[in-house]
Amino acid sequence: MTDRPLAFETLAIHAGTAPDPATGARQVPIYQTTAYVFRDADHAAKLFNLQEVGYIYSRLTNPTVSALANRVVALEGGAGGIACSSGHAAQIMALFPLMQPGRNVVASTKLYGGTIQQFSNTIRKFGWSAKFVDFDDPKAIEAAIDADTRALFCETICNPGGALSDLDAIARVANQAHIPLIVDNTTASPYLCRPIEHGATIVVHSATKYLTGNGTVTGGIVVDSGNFDWSKDDKFPSLSQPEPAYH
């Protein structure tokens, strides 16, 4: 038998998880814990120094949350990701390490209404701003980018208008300016479109919509493509330089 990549449907069921080695349980339990036991002081030191992957405190990471995030990462073809409380939280989490006071995001005019409100009002509290332009016109996007622009933002399929974004064309503009393209893939889902394959740097989701499909869950996902060189210049110090707030 030859090995072959797992199909999308298989990833949707099994990605990000493995049978429990102690019990053989197939499904991931809900880990209702805040703290984790370290093997010894050296193990704890390695975890806190990011020399070893593991769990420290559930405010940071939790096995149940990781299983959800890793499954969507696999479906999107990304390198890593994180799950959070809502789609709008995912948008802010994606922007927060990219932005500083005085910086801006260039966004499509064809966005979910809640996103337009978040970009028009909420992010101003952080000293950020948004420019809304017609993303059907690459030259309009180019003209809106300035020295303080730190991201482009669009939706694969606009909610609720249904407008489609030419991700390949938008990604070319982002690459020329060396700024990340953040794509909200909520309405398309990775089943219909995988934005990373079209040049997206970061993909965000409201898990409330098509990822769960049942209207009973509020959640958000951020997926990193792993394809952006954050250290190429000094635009993104939070990602390319030591973080004083860590520890």
Tally of helical segments: 9
- List the helices and strands in order: HHHEHEHEHEHEHEEH
Number-wise, the strands total: 7
Structure classification: alpha/beta
Q: Can you tell me the CATH topology of the largest domain?
A: Aspartate Aminotransferase, domain 2
Ends apart, CA distance between termini: 49 Å
CATH class of the largest domain: Alpha Beta
- Name the average pLDDT: 94
Low-confidence stretches: none
Q: Which second-level CATH architecture of the largest domain applies?
A: 3-Layer(aba) Sandwich
Rg (C-alpha, Å): 19 Å
Strand content: 5-15%
Largest sheet: 7 strands, mixed
Assign a percent range to the helix content. Answer: 25-40%
Shape: globular
CATH superfamily of the largest domain: Type I PLP-dependent aspartate aminotransferase-like (Major domain)
Total of domains: 2
In the sheet with the most strands, the strands line up as 1-7-6-5-4-2-3
